[in-house]
Amino acid sequence: MAEGSGLRYKDKVTIVTGGSKGIGLGVVTVFVKNGSKVVFCVKDVEESEGKAVEKELNGLGIGEATFIACDVTKESEIKNLIDKTVEKYGRIDCLVNNAGSHPPHMPIDDFSSDDFRELLNLNLVSYFIACKYALPHLRKVEGNIINISSLVGSIGQYGAVTYVATKGGVTSFSKALAIDEAKYNVRVNSVSPGNVWTPLWNSGASKTTNPEQTIANGADSQLMGRFGTIEEIGQVCLFLAAEGTYCTGIDLLSSGGAELNFGIKTMKGEKDLPF
Ligand SMILES: NC(=O)c1ccc[n+]([C@@H]2O[C@H](COP(=O)([O-])OP(=O)(O)OC[C@H]3O[C@@H](n4cnc5c(N)ncnc54)[C@H](O)[C@@H]3O)[C@@H](O)[C@H]2O)c1
Predict the structure, then answer these.
(1) Ligand 1 centre from 183 Cα, in Å?
(2) CA dist., res. 195 & res. 190, Å (int)
(3) Which parts of the chain register pLDDT below 50?
(4) pLDDT tens readout for residues 221-249
(5) Cα angle at 94 between 91 and 95, to 5 degrees?
(6) CA dihedral (119, 95, 66, 2) positive or negative
(7) CB 148 within 8 A of CB 193
(8) Which of 94, 100, 130, 263 has the least CB density, counted as fewest CB within 10 Å?
(9) How far apart are the C-alpha atoms of 230 and 220, rounded to whole Å?
(10) Is the pTM of this model over 0.85?
(11) What's the pLDDT at 4?
């Protein structure tokens, strides 16, 4: 905790990808409320949402929020995001890779190899690129990286071979990078949420035949019988950045206990699924 202020990440500079809604917004909000100077991005098509979040958070008078348009599937735009952050603040203390997506559920037969490549670019290669360009700056201040992965990256998920592969990749990439960067005292961790209520989940559920039942099933997938909130994931990230100074290479589950218990697992027969 910053001495006397009660702010846990005061004046630290944080980059969050995909920060205008969903989990990214939760991370941006929690970090700003704890005194961090946060630069966040979404694609330029969502520029107005990004600007609105920037304005609202700066109105709090704690920390700072800066929006920069960046499509994380484009290397030059990620490089620009890092460069602009360093131009403005002179340092980077924490990088949170979050921007990603989950396609609708399908068997392997219906995914094309191009679908898979596209998702890999968004969910995994973009994390690699952001780490690569941010690391020279993170090393100078012994900063840290948090990669948003997913519980399903380690336990699997029905109809989601491509998504699960990208998230398994995020978790193992984070461990390998933690090993390499330890000599610079840069920590690298991943966070694996269970179901978290976000626009992504909402839009997936709304496409099912019985959205209400789908959402109830989504809540029941956790031992705690509810979705996580975006702020709860933000808090987990803040812990890793601010206090978890002896954590590196871990995959921190924030899953409401979704990986526990023995129960109905068979996917034989019809199921109404959001993805
Ligand atoms: N919601 C969940 O239940 C859940 C569970 C586990 C993991 N996750 C992971 O958390 C992350 C965020 O998911 P969410 O549910 O908040 O999704 P969301 O769709 O609600 O938000 C995703 C954010 O990423 C941004 N984004 C997407 N493509 C982008 C691009 N090319 N360039 C820049 N920004 C882009 C979007 O604009 C948005 O701000 C993802 O990596 C997802 O896989 C989500």
Answers:
(1) 31
(2) 16
(3) 1
(4) 999 999 999 999 999 999 999 999 999 99
(5) 105
(6) positive
(7) yes
(8) 263
(9) 18
(10) yes
(11) 59
Ligand 1 in reach of 40 Cβ (< 6 A): no
Determine contact, residues 57/82, Cβ cutoff 8 Å: no
DSSP string spanning 111-135?
Answer: --HHHHHHHHIIIIIHHHHHHHHHH
In the chain, the number of structural domains is 1
Distance 123 CA to ligand 1 centre (A): 9
Residue 6 in any domain: the answer is no
Centroid of ligand 1 to alpha carbon of 71 (angstroms)? 13
pLDDT given at position 3: 52
Rounded CA-CA distance 179/172 in Å is 11
- What span, in angstroms and rounded, lies between the C-alpha atoms of 228 and 194? 7
Per-residue pLDDT, 45: 82
Answer yes or no: is 175 within a domain: yes
Query: Is ligand 1 within 6 A of the CB of residue 27?
Result: no
Q: Is the CB of 126 under 6 A from ligand 1?
A: no
Residue 200 lies in a domain: yes
Does residue 255's CB lie within 6 angstroms of at least one atom of ligand 1?
Answer: no
CATH of the domain at 42: 3.40.50.720
CB 82 within 8 A of CB 39: no
Pocket test for ligand 1, best of 29, 128, 198, 237 (most atoms within 8 A of CB): 198
Query: Please, which residues bridge with residue 67 across strands?
Result: 40
Asked, for residue 259, whether it belongs to a domain, the answer is: no
Note down the domain range covering 103.
13-254
Give the burial string for 238-275 (b: 16+ CB within 10 Å, else e).
Answer: bbbbbebeeebbbbbbbbbebeeeeeeeeeeeeeebbb
Ligand 1 atom closest to residue 21's alpha carbon, by position in its atom list: 39
Closest residue to atom 29 of ligand 1, CA basis: 99
- 140 CA from centroid of ligand 1 (Å): 29
